[in-house]
Amino acid sequence: MEWISCEDRLPDIGLKVIGYHSKAGVVDAVRLETERNIKRWLLGGDLIGNPTVTHWMPLPSPPENPND
């Protein structure tokens, strides 16, 4: 998987992705939401303030369960 610049493309609204900012480092399982046409990044249920996400990539597939 490769990082996708937020300037090039944003993930679908509500989709959990791995987000990155060069000063903050990797942010696990963020999602993009909109409120009154304003896009904002959330980590869990909390708004991510500045710095904001600059790059993202899809979450990897979960591991296979060896008990299945």
Fold topology:
Layout: E1 4-5, E2 16-21, E3 25-35, E4 38-43, E5 46-47, E6 55-58
Antiparallel strand pairs: 1-6, 2-3, 2-6, 3-4, 4-5
Description of the molecule:
The protein has 68 residues and is mainly beta. It has one domain (4-58). The chain is built from no helices and 6 strands. The chain has strands spanning 4-5, 16-21, 25-35, 38-43, 46-47, 55-58. The chain has a 6-stranded antiparallel sheet, with no helix packed on it. A hairpin with a 2-residue loop joins strand 4 (38-43) and strand 5.
Query: How many structural domains in the coordinates?
Result: 1
From the spread of the alpha carbons, the general shape counts as globular
Largest sheet: 6 strands, antiparallel
Any low-confidence stretches, pLDDT <50, length ≥5? none
Element-by-element helix/strand order: EEEEEE
Précis, in short:
The chain has 68 residues and is an all-beta fold.
List the defining traits of the structure above:
6 strands; 68 residues; mainly beta; globular
